[in-house]
Amino acid sequence: MDVVENSLDLLGFTGVDRVTKFSGVVSSVCFDLYGCVQVVLVPPVNADGALPDGRWFDVSRIEINGERVMAPPSIWTDRRGGAEKPARRS
């Protein structure tokens, strides 16, 4: 697999930043113009029921723990872009 596929494969896994020990679920992956690949880690709901903000980290700093807690979107398996998918009607 290439860098894009390897990075997208992290979606839905729980990870921890090796430097800060911040942990959460990988909910987003970003590829920038300069070759940096980053992920957002979103921590679990806190004791008050509030969802803390996620944080961006360089993908090379992330250690994946355990199993995937949520499947990645089907857009990666059916290879259709969002514009080609019908909108869900309410």
Task: Provide a short characterization of the protein structure.
By secondary structure, this protein is mainly beta. It is built from two helices and five strands; from the N terminus they run H-E-E-E-E-E-H. Strand 2 (23-31) and strand 3 (37-42) form a beta hairpin.
Task: Describe what you observe in this structure.
The structure is a single chain. With 90 residues, the protein is mainly beta. Helices cover 11% and strands 34% of the residues. It has a single domain, classed as SH3 type barrels, CATH 2.30.30. The chain has 2 helices and 5 strands, in the order αβββββα. The radius of gyration is 15 Å and the shape is globular. The protein starts with a helix and ends in a 12-residue tail after the last helix.
Which features would summarize this protein structure in a list?
single chain; 90 residues; mainly beta; SH3 type barrels; 5-stranded antiparallel sheet; 5 strands
Number of helices: 2
What strand order characterises the main sheet? 4-3-2-1-5
Low confidence ranges: none
Helix content: 10-25%
What percent of residues are in strands? 25-35%
Radius of gyration over C-alpha positions, nearest whole angstrom:
15 Å
**Tally of strands:** 5
Major β-sheet annotation = 5 strands, antiparallel
Query: Could you say which structural class the secondary elements and strand pairing correspond to?
Result: mainly beta
* Structural domain count: 1
Give the topology string: H per helix, E per strand: HEEEEEH
